[in-house]
Design brief:
Strand content: 15-25%
CATH class of one domain: Alpha Beta
Number of helices: 9
Number of strands: 10
Structural class: alpha+beta
Largest sheet: 4 strands, antiparallel
Bound molecules: iron/sulfur cluster
Order of helices and strands: HEHHEHHEEEHEEEHHEEH
Helix content: 25-40%
Distance between the termini: 44 Å
CATH architecture of one domain: 3-Layer(aba) Sandwich
């Protein structure tokens, strides 16, 4: 439809959807300003992440998909603050991760309905329950998509760090609409460096040049962190005690601030 600035419309509709969500009587979490990015699904970094088994490829999920729309909606600052330090997960953080899953369903619907106005096909990229316990990661990673878009840097246990912080609701939708161009191609050496840097930024055990501080080791309630990095099996085991179905580091988040 001519004359519609669809990115602006999506931004406005997403803000409105957050307001409506926060106004519900059963919702206690407050959220900040959303960040929304548009990434070409042919970006070479998606190929890299897929080849290295770190996430599904957007084109495998939705073949006609051209653009991945990824968003991050930060938690109110006091929620992230409440979960700092060792010991138990704060009640506010626990509740925020549950409500984030509900919010993301509403936001995904909002984005898809907005794309409908201009006749664009779209699809969500995963369900809430697509955690792969063998790989210890979701089939599709919204957070890696946020990283590819340049909206976020990576941090401990695959956390993302945006200009609005690291605690928040991250999700994505894919559409056949074209909103952006693919980034410049990388050579093989650059791609390998990026891959090694991803592993190091996430502080995964076995990655090159990873060294975790005593404060970070002590902050982990799952005893999953040593000087050599994060043992992802132990991390998942602990996160399963918080959320049996989605044992993602997001439900704990105690190490995220040690970037
Ligand atoms: S259990 Fe996982 S997410 Fe929680 S602090 Fe330890 S490594 Fe980080």
């Amino acid at each position: 439809m001519a004359g519609i600035n669809i990115e602006k419309k999506i931004a406005n509709n997403v803000k409105q959807a957050i307001k409506e969500f926060e106004a519900r009587e059963d919702i206690v979490t407050h959220f900040g300003e959303p960040i929304i990015s548009y990434i070409d699904a042919r970006d070479q970094l998606f190929d890299l992440l897929f080849d290295k088994n770190l996430t599904e490829h957007p084109k495998n999920i939705y073949r006609p998909g051209n653009t991945v729309i990824t968003y991050f909606i930060p938690y109110a600052e006091e929620i992230t603050e409440s979960n700092q330090g060792g010991g138990q997960i704060s009640e506010q953080w626990r509740r925020a991760s549950i409500e984030s899953a509900w919010l993301s369903m509403k936001i995904n619907r909002t984005i898809r309905q907005t794309l409908n106005i201009i006749g664009r096909l779209s699809s969500i990229l995963n369900t809430q329950l697509d955690w792969d316990e063998e790989k210890r990661q979701p089939a599709w990673s919204h957070k890696l998509s946020a990283y590819v878009s340049g909206m976020a840097e990576l941090g401990p246990a695959g956390s993302i760090h945006t200009k609005a912080g690291f605690g928040g609701c991250c999700n994505s939708v894919i559409t056949d609409g074209k909103f952006t161009k693919a980034s410049e191609p990388y050579d093989q050496e650059e791609l390998e460096k990026i891959y090694q840097q991803i592993l190091a930024d996430c502080c995964y055990e076995g990655a090159q040049n990873v060294s975790c501080t005593k404060e970070m080791i002590d902050a982990c309630p799952g005893n999953a962190i040593s000087e050599n990095g994060i043992d992802r099996a132990k991390c998942q085991q602990y996160c399963k005690t918080i959320d049996e179905y989605i044992p993602s580091p997001d439900v704990c988040g105690k190490c995220f601030s040690f970037k």
